[in-house]
Amino acid sequence: MMSEEQIKNLEIQFEERIARDEKIEPKDWMPEKYRKTHLRQMSQHAHSEIIGMLPEGNWITRAPSLRRKVALLAKVQDEAGHGLYLYSACETLGTSRDELYEQLHSGKAKYSSIFNYPTVSWADMGAIGWLVDGAAIINQVPLCNTSYGPYARAMVRVCKEESFHQRQGYEIMIKLANGTPEQKEMAQDALNRWWWPSLMMLGPTDAESIHTAQSMKWKLKRKSNDDLRQQFIDQTVPQAELIGLTIPDADLKWNEERGSYDFGEIDWNEFWQVVKGYGPCNKERMNARVGAWERGEWVRDAAMAHAEKKQKQKQAV
Amino acid sequence: MKENLYKYILGIADNSLILGQRLGELCGHGPSLETDIACTNISLDLFGQVRSYYQYAAKIIGDGRSEDDIAMLRKEREYVNVLLVEQPNRDFAYTMARQFLFDVYHLLFLNELQKSKDVTLSAIAAKSIKEVSYHQRFSSDWVKRLGDGTEESHQKMQSAIDGLWTYTDELFHQTDIDKIIVSEAIGVDVTQLKETYYNLVSELLQEASLSTPESKWFQKGGKQGIHTEHLGYLLSDLQYMQRTYPNMEW
User: Is B122 a residue whose pLDDT tops 80?
Assistant: First the structure.
């Protein structure tokens, strides 16, 4: 048992290391709260990748061309890959993938709410890449320098792939926006539906965000939600204008003084409704995940049983 | 002449198209992340092959049809894939058994196609062999794991093999066009692959503690465009965008 004083000393040393921009590695001592906060954020991120496969997976069989089908398959596969290394990063903090799945399936763990919206047209594949991955990158790029080593390293790779996805999504939108009137309408409709949920993705407004201060100190967060949101809007509005699409916000206006766009009120009631589990597809997403897990149980059991048999045979020889 | 070669290529490519589409249905719904990634990977490989074949077929036929027109705008009766690959993903055992029964054939086929006088087909085959060797390793491993796993998995794998067995013989049927293309040293004489195929399959089934079905009743028709009832639904998804929004670029 360590005395309170010893712990206090370790904590001081720990905070100093972070202040010096040193990376914390799995075997290093860390405060319990640091471990828990990281585990929560990393597992939420992993879950978001896995749930995020579903709305896009929904269009694999119906992609309009072979080229688009291949790109979409590869994208959804990348997301599975991100899930895989983020779950591995969580394991370095002592929680197994199965335990994290259990938390996801029981509804205890959260994932990005954006994936509780339905994908109802092909243009949604463009809008998700452009807007949702675009917002995700803004959230994630600062994490490449976060204090926890395994998370920071995973994020370097994730961000590279996300930025490829974002360009690919925008390219889908360009093609639609320059296409027939029907295609352009499809693109505008997707932008109308995904714009506000994408803004919500950057998290609740600073006044209501409970985790910000501590996370900033640990470099798990570098900018506030509202700053990130502003950055996303300022970056995205010109991209929409460039391809002749209209952002669905009557209050959107360039503010010369701030050098940023002013924008309309976000419907936070809708945000909390979806976060609390009552969005358009919360139930569908969860049923799909839990269903896949339960249908796969006999497969996982068989793989385990087979591996044990092989092990025994090996020992017998 | 070119019409024959065009149709011959469809006979190869349609198998990969339909199987790739079936695997694509599973993305995000597999028993584990690793199997999900692997099935998506196989689907991606197959679609990659499909694109090479159809691009070549489009060039041969030279009437303005694109790879997508060929893939997505034919009538059901014009698809000439074997019945095996259109069978649905009933469960993971069926998916793996279907894959295994096709992969063994596919690899034998590509090894021969590599020797084709047609340099494009030979090149596509050479590239695909690497991919399909991995597919076969993956599906064989799962047939073994499930066959020799638990009692439940054994039963499920046996029933998948039994259920799909009836579609294996068709792999070795030759159409009239096949015969012509074989005689030109471009195509593969699939009748020559049959014995090796059943030997390889039986060997692996034995290793997996599974029995080789004895039934001699087989289904056929895919190569003539007469399909099981499952294909129509698969095509509704595959063709949805091209049919709903004709003549557009994506």
Answer: yes
